[in-house]
Design a protein that fits this description.
The protein has 123 residues and is of the alpha/beta class. The protein is 41% helix and 21% strand. Strand 5, helix 4 and strand 6 form a beta-alpha-beta unit. The model has no long low-confidence stretch (mean pLDDT 81).
């Protein structure tokens, strides 16, 4: 999270600012590794927290449960931190809510001068 990498600090700051200007914010972590550490910090800011595993049935991602969650929350937009995650989530989110504005944070995307193609770096 914000004390481990600059990209995470960027996302944390965006979430914090969004709360400060009055948005309801929900954070869904793909990696549950540090949930115990950061959940209380986000909750203190008024940010709801979920982990992708909460939408699983056994080892399988439960699209139905996730669909109900998206529908009930009535999100206006989704902010995805990494391009490699976005590839998998955009199609699903778009199928659940066509009007959802999807923003992919490009902090890890590199564009080369004179080259219209981008590339990403894995950690």
């Amino acid at each position: 999270m914000y004390d481990r990498a600059s990209g995470s600090l960027r996302i944390f700051s965006i979430l914090k600012i969004m709360r400060e200007i009055g948005y309801e914010v929900t954070f869904i972590a793909v990696n549950p590794e540090l949930e115990e550490t950061y959940r209380p910090i986000l909750e203190e800011l008024g940010i709801e927290n979920y982990v992708v595993r909460q939408f699983k049935s056994g080892d399988t991602f439960d699209v139905g449960a996730f669909s109900r969650f998206i529908y009930e929350k009535n999100f206006n937009f989704a902010l995805i931190e990494f391009w490699n995650l976005a590839k998998g989530w955009i199609r699903l989110l778009r199928s659940l809510k066509k009007e959802l504005l999807i923003i992919v944070d490009s902090v890890k995307c590199l564009f080369h001068k004179g080259d219209k193609r981008g590339s990403t770096r894995e950690r």
